[in-house]
Structure to design on (622 residues):
């Protein structure tokens, strides 16, 4: 296990540098002058341009620019937003809110998704299974922002069950509705994944053995079927973090939450591309780290992975 | 009988060899391919016909929008702003007083173009890279897989937001290109796995023994036998690309508002959501039905092409 962990951590290093390099490359060496974009219609004098270029290290060779950026990144200097606040400051105040929202969504999608998927898989072909499949397909095909609008309109405005905009410090109670919206697509995927994997495992030899040695149905299902069906779900949760991040941008934008996603949403609307890049670079780093964690968890859940190579 | 190297060696009569029964096989009845089997199982499912007909209709709407509406989607009159449905305008009007039905019909093209083009690109890149990596292995595989890991580490829509926010004026083509830049590793990984398992099969060894060139084996035997899972994923991802385009347009980094698309119309509908929700409803429903059709088709293809799933049913 230790060897496996070490190998995975080593493999992550080039991925981390590659991914941040890619994002940096996209923003700073594609056609279009970032300085011109910074100033919009009023073009500054040549001296100012020189000064700003030096400030952002744009006068140095590209590869040097990147390494300066990465060094600053690790020192916690992520640049400033257009209003002059440090990105790391904004991150520090916005992150806890997004973390709460994401955790609520994650708990909901994992628990509800696994339970619904388990019941559907156990009753494959029955009414519950069919309706779970239809509902999950519908949830996947409706974009998160449409669902957000509809929830806001129906439960917020028409029924008045919750406030349509979340207040500044975002208490848990006000986050429930946005979390449900955020979780919806992943919930549907987890239902489908659990269902398929439960139905698959029900025919596995180890389940027949467990039944044959006289275990109760409850024990067979909870211990043998469910535990083995959770392996693909755990892997999915890692990959899913990426869609959760995109979902957070949309959901926090719609419900006016001052989290990381809401900040990115506002920055995109205002055209602050440097802010967008800094935030998304941080998100990508979190995504890479979370996937490493999931990989290790996966190996702990399924011994075949550890010894395979 | 002299062989290629010029040595004489013994060659048994065909009747005395283990391949004799093969030679006597009745070849008039062709072996049933995976695809023929899949077709047989698909055509019995009503969902297959429902989703295929839906996709056909959507394709016709995308290609010939004027067959379905004569109303000009760009002639808007503010006096109709958020107007309710009336004769000739079955879905009512949006905030700018444009006909919602006509805009929904004309918006089909942009969304479907992005979905189709992105899927085609991703499949092409993924199949080429994945099969080369899986088939030739070695340093090529290691190099390509690490590159894939890097792109895979950036969630598709997040990467697209960054790239789209620095690129000037987007078109459906550029949106499709941007989405496929970040989405190809998924297909490449699946293709690589499928090619790896196909390469170890008996028919590849048989072709090698018959002296077929390595590249020809890849084209004629390995890829056709490994492509099934890719087709399933490609069908499903067509739907997710349409959602991704709408999300980008909604965020304001996708297609410019001058391009008619469902994502733009849904994004604009939010300003008058409380007073006239119907403006949001129709483009959203059109988008969801399109995505749903491709998801259902993907599901059915998966069931039909996966022998394991077939055995379970």
């Amino acid at each position: 296990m230790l060897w496996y962990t070490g190998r995975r951590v080593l493999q992550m290093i080039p991925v981390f540098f590659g991914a941040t390099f890619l994002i940096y490359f996209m923003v700073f060496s594609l056609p279009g002058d970032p300085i011109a974009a910074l100033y919009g219609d009023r073009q500054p004098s040549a001296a100012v341009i020189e000064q700003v270029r030096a400030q952002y290290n744009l006068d140095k060779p590209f590869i040097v620019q990147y390494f300066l950026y990465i060094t600053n990144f690790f020192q916690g200097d992520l640049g400033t937003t257009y209003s002059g606040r440090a990105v790391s400051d904004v991150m520090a105040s916005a992150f806890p809110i997004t973390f709460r929202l994401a955790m609520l969504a994650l708990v909901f999608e994992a628990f509800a998704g696994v339970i619904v998927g388990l019941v559907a898989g156990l009753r494959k072909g029955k009414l519950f299974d069919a309706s779970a499949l239809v509902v999950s397909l519908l949830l996947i095909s409706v974009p998160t922002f449409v669902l957000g609008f509809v929830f806001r309109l129906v439960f917020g405005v028409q029924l008045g069950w919750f406030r349509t905009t979340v207040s500044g410090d975002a208490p848990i109670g006000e986050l429930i509705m946005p979390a449900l919206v955020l979780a919806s697509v992943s919930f549907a995927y987890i239902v489908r994944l659990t269902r398929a994997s439960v139905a698959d495992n029900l025919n596995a030899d180890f389940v027949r053995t467990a039944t044959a040695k006289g275990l109760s149905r409850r024990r067979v299902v909870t211990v043998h079927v469910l535990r083995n069906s959770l392996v693909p779900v755990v892997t999915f949760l890692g990959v899913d973090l990426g869609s959760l991040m995109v979902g957070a941008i949309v959901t926090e934008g719609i419900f006016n939450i001052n989290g990381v996603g809401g900040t990115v949403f506002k920055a995109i609307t205002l055209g602050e591309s440097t802010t967008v890049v800094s935030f998304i670079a941080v998100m990508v780093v979190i995504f890479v780290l979370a996937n490493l964690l999931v990989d290790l968890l996966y190996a702990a859940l399924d011994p075949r992975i550890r010894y395979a190579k | 009988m002299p062989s290629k190297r010029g040595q004489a060696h013994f060659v048994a009569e065909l009747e005395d060899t283990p391949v004799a029964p093969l030679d006597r096989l009745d070849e008039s009845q062709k072996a049933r391919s995976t695809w023929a089997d899949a077709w047989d199982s698909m055509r019995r499912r009503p969902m297959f016909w429902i989703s295929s007909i839906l996709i056909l209709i959507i394709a016709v709407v995308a290609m010939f929008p004027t067959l379905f509406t004569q109303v000009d989607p760009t002639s808007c009159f503010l006096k109709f702003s958020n107007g309710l449905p009336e004769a000739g305008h079955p879905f009512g009007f949006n905030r700018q007083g444009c006909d919602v039905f006509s805009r929904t019909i004309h918006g089909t093209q942009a969304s479907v173009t992005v979905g189709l083009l992105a899927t085609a690109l991703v499949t092409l890149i993924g199949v080429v890279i994945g099969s080369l990596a899986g088939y030739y292995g070695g340093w090529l595989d290691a190099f390509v897989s690490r590159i894939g890991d890097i792109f895979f580490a950036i969630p598709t829509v997040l990467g697209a937001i960054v790239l789209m926010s620095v690129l000037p004026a987007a078109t459906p083509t550029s949106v499709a290109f941007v989405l496929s830049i970040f989405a190809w590793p998924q297909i490449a990984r699946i293709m690589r796995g499928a090619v790896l398992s196909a390469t170890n099969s008996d028919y590849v060894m048989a072709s090698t023994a018959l002296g077929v060139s390595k590249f020809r084996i890849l084209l004629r035997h390995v890829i056709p036998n490994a492509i099934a899972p890719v087709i399933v994923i490609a069908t499903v991802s067509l739907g997710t690309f349409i959602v991704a385009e709408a999300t980008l347009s909604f965020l304001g980094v996708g297609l410019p508002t001058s391009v008619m698309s469902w994502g733009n119309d849904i994004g604009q509908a939010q300003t008058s959501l409380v007073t006239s929700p119907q403006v949001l409803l129709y483009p959203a429903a059109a988008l969801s039905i399109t995505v749903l059709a491709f998801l259902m088709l993907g599901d059915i293809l998966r069931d039909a092409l996966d022998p394991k799933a077939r055995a379970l049913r």
Summary: The CA atoms of residues 221 and 227 of chain A lie 9 Å apart. Chain A is about 80% helix and 0% strand. Chain A touches chain B through 53 residues (CB under 8 Å). The two ends of chain A are 11 Å apart (CA to CA).
